[in-house]
Amino acid sequence: MSIAVRHTPPGGTITLTAHRTGDDAFIQVAYTSSGIEPKDLSQVFDRFWRAEKSRSRHSGGSGLGLSIVRQLVEAHGGTVCATSVPGTETVFSLRLPAGSQSAGPQVPRREGRAV
């Protein structure tokens, strides 16, 4: 996530983890940051919302990225959330249905002659 790169201070860390539990896939991005205030956490996925109101769209993003993430994840039957400890860490977590472990992507077969 570009948010993690943009908001992690020099010497900070960004950790990306992914795992599967049952029929769900989980992806988590955790990064050291100044954090998001608890009163603002419920708004981070709202369209055009930005934590730093003083930033212009030229220097701080449009406020659309997390809204798009939420819409895409929910369109696939998943969930996304954010947690933050101000002055320490911010974590974005996604859960997506992964389906049966034995089922792979279904690619339609085409019958015909090879050329």
Description:
The chain is an alpha+beta fold. It contains three helices and four strands, in the order αββααββ. Strands 1-2-4-3 form a four-stranded antiparallel sheet. A hairpin with a 2-residue loop joins β1 (14-21) and β2. The longest helix is centred in the middle third of the chain and has 11 residues, at 65-75. It is globular, with a radius of gyration of 18 Å. The N and C termini lie far apart (43 Å). 8% of the residues are buried. Residues 55-59 have low confidence and may be disordered.
Q: Which characteristics define this entry?
A:
115 residues; alpha+beta; 4 strands; 29% strand
Helix content: 10-25%
Count of beta strands: 4
Helices, by number, come to: 3
| Apparent shape | globular
In order across it, which strands form the biggest sheet?
1-2-4-3
Rg for CA atoms: 18 Å
Blueprint (SSEs and pairs):
Layout: H1 2-7, E1 14-21, E2 24-32, H2 57-60, H3 65-75, E3 79-85, E4 89-97
Antiparallel strand pairs: 1-2, 2-4, 3-4
Brief rundown of the structure:
The protein contains three helices and four strands, in the order αββααββ. By secondary structure, it is α+β, with helices and mostly antiparallel strands. Strand 3 and strand 4 (89-97) form a beta hairpin.
